[in-house]
Structures are given as structure tokens and as C-alpha cells.
Design goal:
By secondary structure, the chain is α/β, with parallel strands linked by helices. Helices cover 38% and strands 22% of the residues. The protein folds into two domains: 182 residues, inorganic pyrophosphatase (n-terminal core), CATH 3.90.1640.10; 73 residues, Roll (Diaminopimelate Epimerase, Chain A, domain 1). A hairpin with a 2-residue loop joins strand 7 and strand 8. The longest helix has 16 residues. The termini are far apart. 39% of the residues are buried. The structure holds manganese (II) ion (MN) (2 copies). One manganese (II) ion binds next to helix 1. The site of one manganese (II) ion (MN) has 5 residues, from helix 1.
Length: 270
């Protein structure tokens, strides 16, 4: 991809990563940078697919690695461990992110826009405003969807007033009822029927180690905890397999009801 600047979010892309990279490409082009190209580092999840279908657009191209010297722009992440293969030797032009900064180093100066907001798209929304750029309907839907996803309809504890204000304004431009559209979108992402127990345990799993104790915290979102608990036996055997396979001391599996902000937690130990 000669002369193209690649824009991407993290591996295991979520809605913010996919939507924010698409929006960043549009924003940069509106600023006069023509050679921008949003790409992705993994498969699109069901929630994000709902948004792409709603807009009638295809996901951006998938890439697996970048060559030495490739110019790149990061959104929704900064840690190299969550980024593309080859990132250490790429040239990072800018980062727009709402996560902690860790394991991040560049050889050259760069633009770095970090805000402790609930979503990367909220930062991009403010960049549109700061630069006096108009937001059209498609861009508004992409950004509103990312905010709805990252803040679980403004209910997650990471939500800030900036996210609330952005979503309110974007919903008007997008001509969507936030609650109605948001619930449909979140529900589309919680269709867990096709996943095996092993896949469910690995959908969103973080490996951690403290004082020599190795454990994993995993989570899935659903609209019905009892529905998923019908598969409790299968889940427990998958959890036991993970514990054995990864040599864990224990595994925490949280099943979160996104409608009621309620969780049921399975904890199994070796
Ligand atoms: Mn993300
Ligand atoms: Mn995010």
C-alpha cells in the first residue's frame, strides 16, 4: 500500500475501533490529507456488523502486519501488544485514544490526542467541532454507535459528560432514537448462540498475574442471563479446560445483563 497512511484500532476490533478508524479517515480527508486509508486487524463482531448493515457499507480491508517504515495512525489503542504485527518498526503519525498509555514508544515526534473519555469517537467528535467541520449523517451514525457501544448506552462507569453531550448532538444529526437504535445494536452483539463454550470464555478475556497468582477475567454481554446459564455445565467445563491449558489458579467469568446493568459471576479454580 504505497504512500497510503493506514488508520486502525486494536486487534479483536470492537465497534469503537472499527467506527473510529472509518471516521478518522473521513476527518483527515476533510482536513486535506487525501492519502488516508482505514483498515482493521481482525474480524468484525456482530454488533459492528449491525451498524455496517444499517449504513449499507462494507467493513474496511483486513491487514495482518505492516512493513518497516509504513506510516500509520492509531485509534482506540496505543499499547503495541494490542496493535498490528510490525508496529515497532512503523512510523506512527498520530494517536487518538481514551486508554492508559503503556508500552508505547516512538522514534519521532507525533500528534497524540489522549482524553479520559468513555469513547474514542467522542474525542473525534470534538475534533470535528474544533476544526469547524460539518458532520454528516453517516459520520454521525458511526460516532453515535461507537459511543453507545463503549458506554453501554451511557450506563457504564467510564461515561463522561463529554460522551453524553456528543451522543445527544450526534443522535440529532443521525436522526436516530438513541435508546431504540442503541438497544437493537447492543442486542445484535449479544447473540451468543453460535459460540462454543470455549469461544465464549475467550470472547473478552484478560490474562493477569499478581503476586505469583495467575488468573483470567472474562466477560460476555447478554440481554438474558438465564438464557446463557442454560449452558452453565458447558461453560464450566470450558472454564476448567482454560484453567488447565493456561496453568491458571482461577478464572472469573462475568455474564453481564446490559439492559439492567447486572452481572452473574462464575468463578472456578484449579
Ligand atoms: Mn476498543
Ligand atoms: Mn474505545
Amino acid at each position: 500500500m504505497e504512500n497510503q497512511v493506514l488508520i486502525f484500532g486494536h486487534k479483536n476490533p470492537d465497534t469503537d475501533t472499527i467506527c473510529s478508524s472509518l471516521v478518522k479517515e473521513i476527518l483527515d480527508k476533510k482536513m486535506g490529507y487525501e492519502n488516508r486509508k482505514a483498515v482493521r486487524l481482525g474480524n468484525v463482531n456482530k454488533e459492528t456488523q449491525y451498524i455496517l448493515n444499517y449504513l449499507g457499507i462494507e467493513a474496511q480491508d483486513l491487514i495482518e502486519k505492516v512493513e518497516e517504515g509504513q506510516e500509520v495512525i492509531l485509534v482506540d489503542h496505543n499499547e503495541f501488544g494490542q496493535s498490528v504485527e510490525g508496529i515497532e518498526k512503523a512510523k506512527i503519525l498520530s494517536v487518538t485514544d481514551h486508554h492508559r498509555i503503556a508500552n508505547f514508544e516512538t522514534a519521532e515526534p507525533l500528534y497524540y490526542n489522549a482524553k479520559p473519555y468513555g469513547c474514542t469517537s467522542t474525542i473525534l467528535f470534538e475534533e470535528f467541532k474544533q476544526n469547524g467541520l460539518k458532520i454528516d449523517k453517516k459520520e454521525a451514525i458511526l460516532m453515535a454507535s461507537a459511543i453507545i457501544s463503549d458506554t453501554l448506552l451511557l450506563k457504564s462507569p467510564t461515561t463522561t459528560d463529554h460522551d453524553k453531550k456528543a451522543l445527544e448532538e450526534l443522535a440529532k444529526i443521525a436522526e436516530i432514537d438513541v435508546n431504540e437504535y442503541g438497544l437493537e445494536m447492543l442486542k445484535a452483539g449479544t447473540d451468543l448462540d453460535d459460540f462454543t463454550g470455549e469461544q465464549l470464555v475467550n470472547l473478552d478475556a484478560k490474562s493477569l498475574e499478581k503476586n505469583g497468582v495467575k488468573f483470567v477475567i472474562a466477560q460476555v454481554n447478554t440481554v438474558s442471563i438465564p438464557d446463557l446459564l442454560k449452558r452453565q455445565e458447558e461453560l464450566e467445563s470450558a472454564i476448567h479446560n482454560e484453567i488447565a491449558k493456561k496453568g491458571l489458579d482461577f478464572l472469573v467469568f462475568a455474564i453481564t445483563d446490559i439492559l439492567n446493568s447486572n452481572s452473574e459471576i462464575l468463578v472456578l479454580r484449579k
